[in-house]
Amino acid sequence: MTLNNSQARLFSFVQRIETLLEERKGINEGISDIKTEAKSAGFDNKVIMQMIRERAMSQAEREEWQSLCELYRATLGMLDGTPMSDNARRHMSRDEKDDREAGVDDMFDPTPEPEPAASPAEARGQGAEAFRSGKRVTENPFPAGDPARASWDEGWCSEAGSDGMDIPPEWRRSPKKAEKGDEA
Amino acid sequence: MTLNNSQARLFSFVQRIETLLEERKGINEGISDIKTEAKSAGFDNKVIMQMIRERAMSQAEREEWQSLCELYRATLGMLDGTPMSDNARRHMSRDEKDDREAGVDDMFDPTPEPEPAASPAEARGQGAEAFRSGKRVTENPFPAGDPARASWDEGWCSEAGSDGMDIPPEWRRSPKKAEKGDEA
Amino acid sequence: MTLNNSQARLFSFVQRIETLLEERKGINEGISDIKTEAKSAGFDNKVIMQMIRERAMSQAEREEWQSLCELYRATLGMLDGTPMSDNARRHMSRDEKDDREAGVDDMFDPTPEPEPAASPAEARGQGAEAFRSGKRVTENPFPAGDPARASWDEGWCSEAGSDGMDIPPEWRRSPKKAEKGDEA
Amino acid sequence: MTLNNSQARLFSFVQRIETLLEERKGINEGISDIKTEAKSAGFDNKVIMQMIRERAMSQAEREEWQSLCELYRATLGMLDGTPMSDNARRHMSRDEKDDREAGVDDMFDPTPEPEPAASPAEARGQGAEAFRSGKRVTENPFPAGDPARASWDEGWCSEAGSDGMDIPPEWRRSPKKAEKGDEA
DNA sequence: CGTGACTCTTTAGAGC
DNA sequence: GCTCTAAAGAGTCACG
């Protein structure tokens, strides 16, 4: 019997798809089983799935995504006391690298002079003023753990977004490269 | 090294899920390939997927679904010239089976008397009148191929849905049984 | 204050989207409410949604979709006793319209000669034979209500799909027209 | 005319749903328009949607979610140079609040003694050692901007997850409270 | 081809 | 502990 007829071919297509759908169903059940096990071990499956999503990105993609989120968060005043990460600061300063050697290198000053305590509002004002003075976001003077650090960030970003300039290039996302095998 | 620690267990869960997700991705690509092949062979993938869905139902479920669709279509005047199927007629008469032996058996009369030609509007009126006379939907006098057959159905169903009665039981879907291995 | 700055524009976009999402949420709740009401009135919401989908199609699209489903069903032997509709027969014969005036017109013969009773297997064989004799699917001799009618269809379609021909054109879906305002 | 009949009620349900679907379609188009506008203004819509999602959470939910993500990230060695946030440290120390007054208050020491420069590997080892010494994650000695800060976190978290203990309570998500109007 | 929307399946949460 | 409901995710389809 030749396969070259409509009926047999249709049957073939239908059955091959059904087989694969069946296998997929089995895999989905396997995933559910693992999640059940993880849950009863005390893990949070939603967070686990988020980790899996992040592991699927290249490190560069991951950093860019998180940097943009932090930038937008700071601009919208949603930092909630969490200062921006160094990666985000670096990301925001990447276009100035020709000016100074820049970003990450001089971002860490091992012996900062102690900054006097500042209220959130004061720190916000200082951040805004720092932007107006041409300072970069990497120059936030407050150390980790200081609640003023996040406020300064919000002030700086808010001011950076307020002075009538167009969207600066670091707000834009890098176009995806051809990403050859970076899923490892 | 004992597996009984949070870090190793977390890693394990993450990797097991990732493996399965990877397999699932492969299967999805296989399905897509088959669809591409079917499409270029001239088949309509949407219809193929519909067939697969229907093959996954038991025959009873399939018939009930189609009967309900036809019933609603007739009531909404959307038959477009397609008379209801015998299955749907039978489905709609299932609650009267105690009255008469019923439905399918006497639905087919091999020697019907010829019905004089009727316009759609006339046939619709006759269907409505038939309902009022207590006739069942299985008693549509027009033969297959007669355009009046669908119109009679619409008239009957419309009248059946119009006389202030509550929703009759055959409009309701049968509750799903525990369905033990009925996917054959 | 000028709106021409990043921060204010970002806020604006965010809030406008949030407003619309909020409205959409309200609408979705409205839909859910109606479905709840319909369900408690005894209707089947899945069927209702199907009707809405069909009402959104033009009559021609609707008929083509259903015809293709019936054709595939017949080929796969899934008619379950439901003969194909006249629309589907017409659809399958549309490419022969030049031969004879065609399809619907002569599909209904008000005085068919009575066909002797046939078992499903016999009817199936007769359908296949009819195809081989060059008969069209519109010439199914069994009347509505006769269980043999569907079997004849299955036989005819199965044979039509089995003779090594390529997929006939009526299996293919018509390309969508520009459909200008046909949603009425 | 009484509405108390099947046909009219079905029509009513169908049309009411259709109306709402139509409105929803309009809203979706509005959202698309705004996104198009935002995109051409240089914003990243994906990030905007993420911000909207976060704005819909209460601050407590947002912080817990991000803390758990950071904790898992640290355990899986995915910090990529971004130290954990103070919120996450606080979250992880919340069950020790009875021991010492705790967490946020003493987390910020305005005059830390300068820490000698450390390589990532050294810092990781110091973090692990710190955990074994009973130190809390809030006691990371490296300042913001120091690349060693994140490494110390990874070491600490990794060790915390490795010592055969059961999942500590702070890994678990807080059960959702009845949340009466906390979306502000 | 890539994005968005809609449906449906699965999963998490609440109540008995 | 189990069921039921509501929400989230994945998949598919259509549009630009």
Automatic annotation (TrEMBL), chains A, B, C, D:
Q: Which InterPro entries match?
A: GapR-like_DNA-bd (IPR046367)
Looking up Pfam families in the UniProt record yields: GapR_DNA-bd (PF10073)
Biased region (Basic and acidic residues) positions are: 87-103, 169-184
Annotated GapR-like DNA-binding domain ranges read 8-77
The entry lists its GO molecular-function terms as:
DNA binding
Q: Where is this region: Disordered?
A: 81-184
* This protein's name: GapR-like DNA-binding domain-containing protein
Organism for this UniProt entry = Gluconobacter albidus
Q: What is the organism lineage in this UniProt record?
A: Bacteria, Pseudomonadati, Pseudomonadota, Alphaproteobacteria, Acetobacterales
